[in-house]
Model the fold of this input.
Amino acid sequence: MVDKKTDLDSPSRRGVLKAGAALAVASPMFYLKDSWAAADQVYRNAPKGATVTLGFNVPQSGAYADEGADELRAFKLAVKHLNGEGDGGMMKTMKPSMLKGNGILGKKVVFTTGDTQTKSDAARASAKRMIEKDGALMISGGSSSGVAIAVQGLCQEMGTIFMAGLTHSNDTTGKDKRRYGFRHFFNAKMSGSALGPVLKEEMGTERVAYHLTADYTWGWTQEESIKETTEGLGWQTKAAVKTPVGAGDFSQYITPILNSGADTLILNHYGKDMINSLTQAVQFGLRDKEVNGKTFEIIVPLYSRLMAQGAGENLKGILGTTAWNWALTDEGSQAFVKSFGAEYGNPPSQAAHTCYVQTLLYANACEMAGTFYPPEVIKQLEGFEFDGMGNGPTEYRAEDHQCFKDVLVVRGNQKPTSQFDLLEIVQQVPRSQVEYDASIFGGDLGPYKV
Amino acid sequence: MDAILIQLLNGLDKGAAYSLIALGLTLAFGTLGVVNFAHGALFMLGAFCAVTFQKILTISKRVKDESITFFDAYKDQPYLEIWWGDTGAAIIDYAVPLSILFAIPVMLLIGVALERGLIKHFYKRSHAEQILVTFGLAILIQEVVRHFFGANPIPTPAPDVVSGSAAIGSFLGLSDNLVYPWWRLIYLFFSGVIIFAVFAFLKYTTFGMVVRAGMADRETVGLLGINVQKRFTIVFAIAALVAGLAGVMYAPILPPDYHMGMDFLVLSFVVVVVGGMGSLEGAVAAGFLLGVLQSFASMNEVKAIIPGIDQIIIYLVAVIILLVRPRGLMGREGVFEE
Done:
């Protein structure tokens, strides 16, 4: 009988040597693997002290300055809530959530701000300054798609996550989408899908539309999406005229409409431009006209309560879409309105809502990832499904970083019950009606590591 | 026909604004020989006279808004309304026309202060130096306004009674489509009155005669023992007043912001050059001409032939006129021709 001994039973000299050699080789490898992983996770502006810096880049001047001011208020409130101050707002309603009210990953949140001036070059310069000089780990803000796309591109180059604020162009998460850019706000395509059935019901299928369009990416894509919708309904498009952003006096663009034979004006304008063009359109008597046997109608595909405030009486009865409204009755919206109202004395705008939510979503993604390392945070945001932040169950689609949630079709309130009750919700269009195939707009997200 | 008429009206309306600003610019250049790049800022200051006056009239008491239950909200209630009810509200409604009374002394004062404090030191300096100093002044004025009023345009509405449109078509027995905003018609009429007043002042008063003589030959007028300098100070103040009044009345058309003067300045300089440097008639004629051309260039039928023509028409005309007739439409021979 042969008693076969294993190395383990009685280690031979050769066995010990072999095992030792193997260990000698394996141990450094083990250590190296860890150190390689750490080296792999070297990233710009990794927080070293007790704080983490976020950069809020908003228009403080220019045509979208009102939205910018409200965005900044929302950012400040989000930071307050993240640091455990105030009543917590939507942190109490967000599901699922790993936010604890002790900053992000235990680090107190501080912030730096920039003025985009509603200009792409100025926005890039201020974002660059916040990243390079102020150490911002994440950039958020916007209020113009031109600005958002420009800053998103910069953030991709610099490896800094960009949580877009108010940007409605299809391009932001379409042909110009970036791995480091995320949009919670809806887009022009979704506005068109939401608005279509309501337009058909209220205005019929035989209309002649005339577009005035802000001459930059947002205006172009909104015109394209709304044309696609209205022409799908059977409407004709008489003309689509591009207007410079910040034109102020739109009379030279409005007068040709009077005798064009169009019975519907679609204003692809936003902010002060929309206030000015709509006010002037009303001054020129467009809303009192009868054309083709129909009452002349004006449509503002994207509008907000802030614009309604500026346009006053002129906006009453006009249809459009909005991402969110303070009058929504869900738990999350009400918590946010209460918190924002107590802080600033007025309800938040849709721009404020999206900026607040974006900040919380970023913070939560860091908590979920257990690190600030951008590629890991990005992976947590991609495909993230959540609720309790207004507009019902929401998903950050992984393929294009576009959030999908319910869209509101609204009308300028004809009988407001308060100074803020300016938009009447006509319909909360379900998310399923505004979803589309991510591939239709093309684009490429790019790499996780830059 | 309707389309042509409405574009014509709109062109005249735009032209009225260009003419008023260009008129002041030409007055300053023709009399003082100063190229005043701060003139657009004076137009903006006029608009802010309307804003300031409106703010004064709407000084308010903050009262709790009981209709908001989510949080404590407040709304502003103007003291004028609290004290005088509907009468107070009517006064606030007429803030823009009333602000003309406020703007007249303010703009005259600003004009005198600028001329005495800065401009007079640059009479004998080169045009390049004048442009630099007045451009710097314009930026300074802009930033001061931005500091106090912020960067956003401030809505300054016209009185309710003239906020709608006039049915010109029905009135003239033409199509009902021909309507035009009341306030823009008022602006056009107001501009005509101001232009007429300036010309009448220069033509029918002794003061005006001296100014015109000074514009033609300053040295000879001085040799006749007339204090041209003192009169020129007044002329500068009048130029500032004309720009200011143009700004006041433009406030309901375009909500004023700190940058609005700069937007008009460039166009107005083109108007002055096209009209002929130093020619008051030329400035007015060129203002209306370019306004009307710009308006017609905005018609879709025109843009279908030459896309983008509405954006460049004014500059295109300026280039052609300067090539064909360097002194401008009504400029004096020898002035700025070399």
Observations:
- Chain B touches chain A at residues 2-3, 6-7, 10, 13-14, 65, 67-68, 70-75, 151-153, 155, 163-165, 177-181, 183-184, 253-255, 260, 263, 294-295, 298-300, 303, 310-311 (CB under 8 Å).
- The longest strand of chain B covers residues 60-64.
